[in-house]
Design brief:
Layout (H helix, E strand, L loop, with lengths): L2 E8 L3 H12 L4 E5 L12 H6 L1 H19 L15 H25 L2 E11 L3 E6 L4 E11 L3 E3 L12 E2 L1 H4 L8 E5 L3 H12 L3 E6 L10 H13 L3 E4 L2 E8 L2 E7 L4 E6 L1 E4 L3 E3 L32 E3 L10 H15 L13 E3 L4 E6 L2 H7 L3 E7 L4 H5 L6 E7 L5 E8 L2 H13 L4 H5 L10 H9 L10
Parallel strand pairs: 1-2, 1-5, 2-3, 5-16, 7-14, 8-9, 8-14, 9-10
Antiparallel strand pairs: 3-4, 4-5, 6-15, 11-12, 12-13, 17-18, 18-21, 19-20, 20-21
Helix pairs in contact: 1-8, 3-4, 3-6
Cofactor: FAD
Main location: cytoplasm
Subcellular location: Cytoplasm
Length: 474
């Protein structure tokens, strides 16, 4: 006999666990199903983000940054160190410890909020029945007044470069190399490719990134992308644009690649190959026959602006629906749906979702790019300010990059903020907040910013919109 719940959530990643906890906070009886296991073979909540994505990649990025700075930056500060070495096993072990801490933390939050976890694969059946095939082979049946589908996403696999977990890997494998690969090939110059390519480059790997598109980071502001590309090339990342890979063969512990740059075929031999060409909705096996829930041509669950599927009581959130595949977007959708179920207002503003790439320098933006505004015929004005003119950035020996503020030419309302430089993952939220409250460039320019701080770059960029920046020629 089915166990009854007010809300059954399939998936305990960022969108799912936020939905489950918020629904429980609102007094609803909640179950949350998740199939993932940790490296120790035990259930591990938190989804891709926590287990093999956002959190572990940031742990390795920080470890590799420390090692790189010890070798290349500390000398400027008068700090010397000889024969610096990196113990990859210890570095990966630290990453695993952090992951375990946070996956365990979600289990504790479920317990504190009285969310009932089920560990196994959940499938939605008609009339909001969810069957869970548990890891011990048994099956349980749950009945929900509401069901929230939060199945997340999987890595896209290329037909000619199948993952083998050893030579050809996705983000999961690239987080667990046992030693620094002498030569690392990366297909895809997106977030995952750039971040994990940066990790192993800093540790001594010879990294070649092959990007099929002719433009670098086409989704970002063009000036930001140019600046970032210049800095990455300075660091020794070999980024080849317009390079379409057609073959990847493993021979004698090496991966032999063939790619075309639009002029001719070229070959590349690497020790490890990271395939980072994007992610797809993990909707396979999620829906039984007759549920009425529809998938689009990309395998995403179709939903309206409130994340409703059109089937009574069935919702979907996070990476398995439209919109950016970002953990924080999933957070907000999960909370919004929980509140809608409880009869409260729930809303996500897609116009103010920030984007971040955690490379060195970091890249972050919110809102529209200049190209998007031009294409839409919206009149705008811009102001930018370089970190090279910011005292705090120079004192930190981190002068690369800049901040750009884009405002409507007539109303002065902020339409976008684009940043490349040190710690811009934190600074971008000044733009998010200003835009959420319909702020203007003048509003930002009139807010007192502490000196010396990196945030002064935002202040001066906002002043530069009206050509009144103090610390640069306008």
């Amino acid at each position: 006999m089915a166990e009854n719940f007010d809300v059954v959530v399939i998936g305990a990643g960022p969108a799912g666990y936020h939905a489950a906890i918020r629904a429980a906070q609102l007094g609803l009886k909640v179950a949350c199903i998740d199939a993932a296991l940790g490296k120790d073979g035990k259930p591990a909540l938190g989804g891709t983000c926590l287990r093999v994505g956002c959190i572990p990649s940031k742990a390795l990025l920080d470890s590799s940054r420390q090692f790189h700075n010890l070798q290349h930056l500390f000398g400027e500060h008068g700090i010397s160190a000889k024969d610096a070495k990196i113990d990859v096993k210890t570095m990966v072990g630290r990453k695993d410890k952090i992951v375990k801490q946070f996956t365990g933390g979600i289990a504790m939050l479920f317990k504190a909020n009285k969310v009932t976890p089920f560990y196994g694969f959940g499938t939605l059946h008609p009339n909001r029945v969810v069957k869970v095939k548990q890891h011990d082979g048994t099956e349980v049946e749950l009945q929900g007044k509401h069901v929230i589908l939060a199945a997340g996403s999987d890595s896209i696999e290329l037909p000619f470069a199948r993952f083998d977990g050893k030579h050809v890997v996705d983000n999961v494998g690239a987080l667990d190399f046992e030693e620094v690969p002498k030569r690392l090939g990366v297909i895809g110059a997106g977030v995952i490719g750039l971040e994990l390519g940066s990790v192993w480059k800093r540790l001594g790997s010879e990294v070649t990134i092959l990007e099929a598109m002719p433009d670098f980071l086409a989704a970002a502001d063009a000036e930001v992308a140019r600046t970032a590309l210049k800095e990455f090339k300075k660091q020794g990342l070999d980024i080849k644009l317009g390079a379409k890979v057609s073959k990847a063969e493993v021979k004698k512990n090496e991966v032999h690649l063939t790619y075309n740059d639009g002029k001719a075929d070229h070959s590349l031999v690497v020790d490890k190959l990271l395939v980072a060409v994007g992610r797809k909705a993990a909707s396979k096996g999620l829906l039984a026959e007759g549920t009425g829930v529809k998938l689009n041509e990309r395998g995403q669950i179709e939903v309206d602006e409130h994340c409703a599927t059109g089937v009574e009581g069935v919702w979907a959130v996070g990476d398995c629906v439209r919109g950016p595949m970002l953990a924080h977007k999933g957070f907000e959708e999960g909370i919004a749906v929980a509140e809608l179920i409880a009869g409260l207002p729930g809303h996500v503003n897609f116009d103010t979702i920030p984007w971040v790439i955690y490379t060195e320098p970091e890249i972050a933006w919110v809102g529209k790019t200049e190209k998007q505004l031009k294409d839409e015929g919206i009149p705008f004005k811009t102001g930018s300010f370089p970190f090279a003119a910011v005292g705090r950035a120079v004192a930190m020996a981190e002068p690369a990059g800049f901040v750009k503020v884009i405002a409507h030419e007539e109303t002065d309302r902020i339409l976008g903020m684009h940043l490349v430089g040190v710690n811009v993952s934190e600074l971008v939220h000044e733009g998010v907040l200003a835009m959420e409250f319909h702020g203007s460039a003048e509003d930002l320019a009139r807010i007192c910013h502490a000196h010396p701080t990196l945030s002064e770059a935002i202040h001066d960029a906002a002043m530069a919109v009206d050509k009144r920046a103090i610390h640069k020629a306008n």
